[in-house]
Design brief:
60s Ribosomal Protein L30, Chain: A, alpha+beta, two-stranded antiparallel sheet, four-stranded mixed β-sheet, about 35% strand, single chain
Length: about 140
């Protein structure tokens, strides 16, 4: 059964979107070296997680959206405070991983997120990331 929903939008207000891939640190636990996410990335993910949980509850109550989403299209728009060169694909990885971690998406593989579009622009007054999920399917095809 396929259910089309209105386009869902979640916004993450931040001037910096740390790259999960480039934000790693080496720590030693009981003499064993382990690579973990940096404190900067972990703090950002925790803050974004709060935004996700509030948004998710609103969507469940107001729009009767059932989570986790099993299939959808995704469009991600980054609005940066300046014209500095940044790698969009590294930034979006943390966004999708957070949406999986906090139960919005079932997974971030191509079978669930397809198609994906990523764009960037400048907004000096309100840097943010707008994520749109559309063509939502609530059960397997």
């Amino acid at each position: 059964m396929k259910t089309e929903a209105t386009k869902l939008k979640i916004t993450c207000y931040a001037s910096v979107f740390p790259s999960k891939k480039n934000q790693k640190q080496l720590v030693y636990i009981k003499g064993k070296a382990i690579i973990i996410s940096s404190n900067k990335y972990t703090a950002w993910e925790k803050e974004f997680g709060k935004t996700i949980m509030v948004w998710k509850l609103e969507q469940e109550q107001k729009n009767k959206v059932v989570f986790p989403i099993r299939r959808c299209a995704a469009s991600v728009f980054f609005y940066y405070p300046n014209n500095r060169r940044l790698d969009l694909t590294n930034k979006v990885e943390g966004i999708f991983d957070s949406l999986v971690k906090y139960g919005v998406l079932d997974d971030d593989c191509w079978q669930i997120l397809n198609p994906i579009s990523i764009s960037g622009d400048i907004d000096k007054t309100k840097p943010r990331c707008d994520i749109y999920l559309s063509n939502i399917i609530d059960s397997d095809i």
